Amino acid sequence: MSLFAHRWTRSGQLAIVRDMTELSTIIIGSGPAGYTTAIYLARAGYRPTILAGELTPGGQLVNTTTVENYPGFPDGILGPELMDRMRDQAESFGASIEYLDVTSVDFSSSPKTVTCSNGSQYHADAVIITTGSQYRKLGIPGETEYSGHGVSYCATCDGFFFRDKPIVVVGGGDSALEEALFLTRFGSSVPVLHRRDQFRASKIMVERVLNNPKITVKMNTGATAIRGQKNAAGAQTGADAVTAAAPAAQNTGNLLSLKTTPMLNVSGSALNAPSSTGISLSAKAETADDSAGFVDIRDTVTGETGTLPAEGIFVAIGHEPATRFAKGSVDMDDDGYILVSGAGTHTSMPGVFAAGDCVDRVYRQAISAGMPRRAGRTILPGLTALIQQHSSTRRRNQTSSQTMILLHRRVELHK
């Protein structure tokens, strides 16, 4: 609903101007949480508006291939198709979608103010934040190019596609080790790369990893680049194209000690003898019809370099909630996750709710859209009261505006 306000022009004329776009509810962010919340609110008659983002509406699932663990699809469903269906369902009940990024918010007064990337402002009685989180990236060459072509951030989503193939896991927390253990069901080998000399994971997870024969732990080791299978095709000699070349960890009581294995030097397409310089690359990765095949690694202590065969590279170094636009407007923890009351969805600001991955740092699964269901249902009672209150205020303001217009007209008639 568009609201109008009056103002006096410099010439003394009373003008009616469009003041703002007024809505009952705004949902910031799409994805399973945003669309589920929209469905519940739309079915209750609130006609929410979703500010879905400009570049990647639909959340992380739009970058996923086959989703096999979402109920109702025994043969699986493509991630983009699943999100399209959720969007269509939300729209069918009356939700509207604007493909805009939110740059700032003002929750200090009511109605709330949301400013978008194109400069437009939206005002609403209630705001639901469902912006999710994004995987923390390594930021190394080849990561972006081979994303979806060997590079993954979800073992349960993509592990199946690397059956009997070499897999590498990067990370040292519980999530990384849990993914490594899961991936042993599929991969022929699962080295774990961790850039420090101690894991951040729990002791029991570390013990499980060290006792798994498929997993080789490589401490003080970081990934420096990801290369395609064709990039080093000339260096391949059968199945043992490039062998492991990194510090390998051995279990010696409570500590992990390191030993160094020989390194291979690849220059162009020739496989050379081991050298202290490790690997040098002169070829540029071609990803159009290529997929990941190798990971370049570096010892963070000695500087020694090497390479590992890896057709699947799973990055598990944490998440970053997409909540920067709301910093200072609602309470967050040190990592930027929005704090909510108990198992609910109420934030520190009345009339502002949050659900999905921007709150959930544990499960991060589309099926946990049960949280936005709670958001939709817990919002309704308070939202009804807010709308009634603001409607009464608007009627008073409109009456005041009409009175001023009438008075102005009478003055003009008596001139």
Describe this structure in a few short sentences.
The protein is α/β, with parallel strands linked by helices. The chain is built from 6 helices and 24 strands.
Describe this structure in words.
This protein has 415 residues and is α/β, with parallel strands linked by helices. Helices cover 22% and strands 28% of the residues. The strands form 7 sheets. Strands 1, 2, 3, 6, 7, 8, 9 and 24 form an 8-stranded mixed β-sheet that branches. A 5-stranded parallel β-sheet has the order 11-22-12-13-14, covered by helices on one side. The relative contact order is 0.15. Residues 1-20 and 233-287 have low confidence and may be disordered.
Question: Which radius of gyration do the C-alpha atoms yield?
Answer: 28 Å
Poorly predicted ranges:
1-20, 233-287
Q: How large is the count of helical segments?
A: 6
Which whole number gives the mean pLDDT?
76
- Structural class call reads alpha/beta
Based on CA inertia axes, which overall geometry fits?
A: elongated
Strand content: 25-35%
Give the distance, in angstroms, between the N- and C-terminal Cα atoms. 37 Å
Would you list the SSEs in sequence order as H and E? EEHEEEHEEEEEEHEHEHEEEEEEEEEEEH
Largest sheet: 8 strands, mixed
* Number of strand elements: 24
Helix content: 10-25%
